[in-house]
Amino acid sequence: MEFVRPGGDGHLRNASTLLLPAVSIGNAGQLAVDLLVSTLGVRRAGFLEEPHVLPCVGNDPFGPSAEGKLTVALEVYEYEDQGLSVVQQRAPVVKGAMMKYAKNMAVWAACEGIKEVIVVSGLDSGKRQRHDMDLSQIQYISTASKDGLDGRCEALGWKRLEQYLPLSEAWQLLDRDSVTDPVVDNELSPDIHSTDDAYFPGLPFASIFSSCKAEGLKVVCVLCFCAEGDNVPDAFLIADAVQQYLHHRKPEASGAQLEWKVPLSWTTVYGPPPDSTMFS
């Protein structure tokens, strides 16, 4: 993985925290990153060249008007005053190469001097525990402790993902693969494949989590249970959670509620409104 800064030196500037999405159900994490980039007004610093992410190109997603500024598969944005860098992923990882991508991302982040990585992702609401239905959709796992607990996240009212079982065979295999070169991505034994134990460690966020942990980085995964459909409300929920975490981590910050700025690209995400005459 290589960072390309047009006209620059190819390195991040004053970055201690990295925020990035893990491609997931409803693209909730990517939508949340779009919302944060649009609202915080962070500037695009460059892009990442990564052989394990499919190429794509599109128009400027943020506006305020579509001026023809191209966007690509992996872009990097910087908020230098806050020491925050943001990666947005707009294309899927090549099938079978998720761990390779995660390792490349972790190594690059470590080389750039990143101290903490925040991963945002959606989770299938069908896998949610019934006794959690009255709680927030937001759950988390962290490297702050061996069991994934983090006092700062707990203070925000978040619950640790109950299905994070670091001593289970599936999670142990993931940790092993993050420091070795597996022949097959996430090659779990058949008996694990036949259970729900393989679902969460088989998701992209888990590969990024384990790979960054292997590089000695602090990692917090902000996870939101959701379903396919209109995932805009889920994006707001995740973006709110990230803001709360960032402000909680910096006691001097006011923590005031942001007025979210919806990206230009969202205006057509679900197409034009229905013809009103069809209801008359």
TrEMBL record:
Its job: Chaperone protein which promotes assembly of the 20S proteasome as part of a heterodimer with PSMG1.
Species the sequence originates in: Sphagnum troendelagicum
Species lineage: Eukaryota, Viridiplantae, Streptophyta, Embryophyta, Bryophyta
Protein name: Proteasome assembly chaperone 2
Coiled coil: none
Keyword vocabulary terms for this entry: Chaperone
InterPro entries the record matches: Proteasome_assmbl_chaperone_2 (IPR019151), Proteasome_assmbl_chp_2_euk (IPR016562), PSMG2_sf (IPR038389)
Top-level taxonomic group: Eukaryota
Subunit structure: Forms a heterodimer with PSMG1.
Pfam families: PAC2 (PF09754)
Keyword Kinase carried by entry: no
Protein family according to the UniProt entry: Belongs to the PSMG2 family.
